[in-house]
């Protein structure tokens, strides 16, 4: 079993160089291989929150079947106003994926 539940952002609108907090509950019965958050609009902005990239890593404590995560994400200064969305992609070690998305408007 692999699930992303309770996906929320603290605001449904943001501004360039502002911050948005993304929260979710991860439920799993198998080891997690990767958690990736993407910020999409006309351009794609990757925000790596698992592993050792950009020092924004975290791990799910071994043996836990549910884990609450909260990530503060800096909106790029180069972003244009418009409709965007965050996508969180969870992959376990067997290769199974779960994907969830949340829309946000940049003013």
UniProtKB/TrEMBL annotation:
SUPFAM superfamilies attached to this UniProt entry: NEAT domain-like
What InterPro entries does UniProt report for this protein, alphabetically?
A: DUF4625 (IPR027829), NEAT_dom_sf (IPR037250)
Question: A Pfam family for this UniProt protein?
Answer: DUF4625
Q: What is this protein called?
A: DUF4625 domain-containing protein
The species this protein belongs to is Prevotella melaninogenica
């Amino acid at each position: 079993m692999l699930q992303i539940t309770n996906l929320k952002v603290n605001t449904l609108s943001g501004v360039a160089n502002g911050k948005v907090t993304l929260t979710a509950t991860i439920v799993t019965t198998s080891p997690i291989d990767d958690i990736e958050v993407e910020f999409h609009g006309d351009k794609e902005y990757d925000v790596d929150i698992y592993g050792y990239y950009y020092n924004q890593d975290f791990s799910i404590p071994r043996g836990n079947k549910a884990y609450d995560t909260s990530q503060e994400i800096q909106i790029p200064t180069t972003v244009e106003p418009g409709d965007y969305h965050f996508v969180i992609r969870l992959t376990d070690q067997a290769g199974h994926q779960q994907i969830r998305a949340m829309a946000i408007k940049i003013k």
